[in-house]
## 1
Amino acid sequence: MTFTSTLSKEMNIWLGKKIETKLIYLGAGDGSKNLFARAIDLISMSKKKITNSKKNGIKKYKKQPNNSIGFIKSLILSLNIISIVYDNYRTINKMHKYRLNGGYSITDRYPQLQQMGINDGPKISILYEKAKTNYLKELSKIEAKILKRTVDIKPDLIFRLNISTETSMKRKPEQNNYKYFEEKTKKVAELKFPDTLIFEINAEKDLAEILLQIKEIIWEYL
């Protein structure tokens, strides 16, 4: 069963009182990153400190050619993406085995291959479109292969929480880009999950109303 993070927690508490459940987070937040991804974060933080030091005139570092910096950044980012995608595959594979043994997993999202760059869709292919290099091409193939193996494991239920572009902007005011939210809203609505029951939920309502609607659907399904 797939929800947002807030609803996932609520559903896990509710269902956990009745049946065996597990709450699974498939995103790339601090709590779920693997060792490689955490190492990349540390490197990025160190680079920011060096950059700030350079700006303040504390210490000077030899500047690398832009093409070298671009290569290193895109390579590290791509490897980081693949490590997270592979972690998600292993997690979903474990979820499937747990399901076969009678358990129910609740997640905040589910990978897909239809839309690039959003909702755990392909990301390296976007980098490849910007820089047509052989290594990005090969890494994008690896990412797609892992994603394909992941989405072949079908979830039973998906709840699509539909909100307007305006509401999306209100919830993330730091990204003041109407076109971005409009495009993302459209792409999310177009996502399809074959062999999975998809329920469209009006997420403009109060949380209590949304929870009640979802609980009624799940109870009927069980």
Note: The mean pLDDT is 83.
## 2
Amino acid sequence: MKPITILLALLAIPSTLLADAAWQRDFDALLRKYVVDGGVHYAAWKASPADLAAIDSVVNRIGADEPSHLGRNDKLAFYIDAYNAWIIDLVLRKYPIRSIKDYAPLYGIFTAKNIRLGGEAMSLNHLEKDLVLAGIGDARAHFGLNCASRSCPVLIPGAYFGSTIDKVLNERARAYMVNPYGVRFSGNKNTASLSMIFKWDADDFTNAAGSVVAFIDKYRQPPLPTGVKLEFQPYDWSLNEAK
């Protein structure tokens, strides 16, 4: 292909598509630098003026962009990355903290309209509950969204992209079903101690698979045995800081 033809093809791509790819690539690089074993090196990140400016740039571009032009998988990746980027940015602004519950009022980091997407001020709860879970309707998104806490499904060291999101969300769902914070099974008692996510958002999993246990068994190996008794474990809100 001649250089002029390549240039014309690039000019034909909507600018928003190029911007989406740019901020997601930048976010991906930051995660690869600071995320280890599901934890974040917040202290090192906070100590780097360049990388603080970089995450601010990422969320500023998210705030100005919106994904209405994207297909389903690209839109889901956009929303998950937007949520994870914003919560990291909010934590870094207040760091050092021991828990996101240190935000006032209690759980205010989720309920306040302290983020922007597509030029609209909104809360993290609105992004998660309305745009991702109700809007797209994929219960696996629970395992991509990270609330900066120990009991959350872990933050992966990289961004989500539409081209691989089905594969990666399946991997994240399988990982959470054998993570003690997600599903802790006791064979002696035939009891499964589940994350509170499975209680708070039971409708998402029931709508997807018929029941919470059926959803878990879809991704868990070995599956939970017939007649298993369910209980819910306390949620650990301590910060997901890398050890």
Note: Residues 115 and 121 are 6 Å apart (CA to CA).
